[in-house]
Amino acid sequence: MHPSISSFPNREFYDSKVLDAPNVKERTYEKCFLQGSMYGSYSFINVTNGIEDQDSKHSTKNMVEVAVVAEIVSNLFKGLLRSVRSIDGFQGGEEDLIIISTVRCNRVDLWASFPIIKEPMHGLWILGNGATLMNSNDSWRKLVLDTKAPGCFYNANDDNNLAQAVVGALVELNQLDTILKIDSPLFSNTRWKVCCWIISLNLYY
Length: 205
Description:
Elements: H1 3-14, E1 42-46, E2 52-54, E3 60-62, H2 63-78, H3 87-90, E4 95-101, E5 120-128, H4 130-134, H5 138-148, E6 153-155, H6 160-172, H7 176-180, H8 190-204
Parallel strand pairs: 1-5, 1-6, 4-5
Antiparallel strand pairs: 2-3
Helix pairs in contact: 2-6
């Protein structure tokens, strides 16, 4: 496991008693999956516009986070990653890269996902609502703070492709009011200002 990933679970679960192997400290151990600092070895991607809902089987879902994950996975397929599996497909094993969607944006019973952060070897990207997790149990709050300290905390809306994925999901969910708010992070991109302005004119006409 890359030292940037192992640092937090080592402190949180093992009282800092686990030592990194010499090979993982070498620069050659680092892998570049996608371009941009957001896609380094260890990242928290803040998805502030997520909408928590339940499906017919009462399972919790967040289609905005799904759209963001789908965009990331699509870009990975275009690059060097050939195999993508769900948690059930590799639980208990190790993978080069693990992407976690925490799903919840209103409630804070989020402990179940924690064991999976001990399994990635080269990359761990966590998607979630940072504010919700900060108000969650102590370990999730510590994790968010842990990503902020070394500059591993990013906003999904700062990446143009992820911002477009968020907007697309909100349109599908009939949440146009979220996009059209002037103070929304999604509105900081001039391209979306123009698109939303045209939509507004068409609706008015």
